[in-house]
Amino acid sequence: MRSTITIHLDRFELISLLPPEEYKEVMAALVRFQKTGEPAVFGSVAAQIGFNALLQSVEHNNAQYDEAVRKRSEAGKKSAEIRQRQAKNHSPEHPSTPFNTAQQHSADGGNVNHTDSDPDPDPVADAIDLYTRNPELRESLRQWAEDRKAKKKPLTLNAAKLAFKVLDSAANDTDRVKIVRKSVLGGYQGLFPIRDNQTRVPKPLPADTGAGQAGEIARVLANGGFDHD
Fold first, then answer.
1. What Cα–Cα distance (Å) separates residue 13 from each residue in 8, 154, 161, 211?
2. 23-46 residue pLDDT tens
């Protein structure tokens, strides 16, 4: 039994020309259908056509509502699974959290793409999603993992955890994205911190400094002084 009826207003134009009694019968039949699912049959052809048109709108809106409810229910189940998994990892029986570095960047663990019911779960993909909620960083890490897989060097869960520790040394997600992209572009199997380039100041020529000029004067004096014409 449904407690509401949703009908687009333009559909009411189809029954606006019906006599008042038939109009009431059509509306009453719609309410009855929404409550019990019982179809209606009218003696008037016009009333039957109007009812059928409104019924199509009602059924369409019912289907959209049911689909929205189903998606919300699935999202709630996935969220509950993630919370249960995190609670288990933090329980006394499991003192070491598999993704302890991930907790620094994700308050609720993000959205995991694979659940325990999936036929082929990907623990590395789950680890990436648990590590960060930043979409740009997630995508960069996935590209790096795919690049390693294409080179027959697939990323293991332990390797992913070590890579996350390297990323933890960066100041922010922007720097973390740079680290991952550098490895993707360079075809590196690992992640490496980006070090600031040291600025080298060229040494001035001796003639440009006081010390250089003094040295030149000393050399001239040692040779007997300046030549005079």
1. 10, 62, 63, 99
2. 888 889 888 888 888 888 888 888
pLDDT digit string, tens, across residues 148-193? 999 999 999 899 999 999 999 998 999 999 999 999 999 998 999 8
Cα→Cα distances 216→209, 227, 229, Å: 11, 14, 20
CA 161 – CA 51 distance, rounded (Å): 62
Amino acid letter, residue 12: F
Full-model pTM:
0.37
Q: String of b and e for 34-43 (b: at least 16 CB within 10 Å)? A: beeeeebebe
- How many angstroms separate the Cα of 138 from the Cα of each of 158, 207, 229? 18, 56, 80
Closest by CA to 98, choosing from 67, 74, 121, 131, is: 131
Cα-based distances in Å from 227 to 30, 212, 214, 221: 120, 20, 18, 10
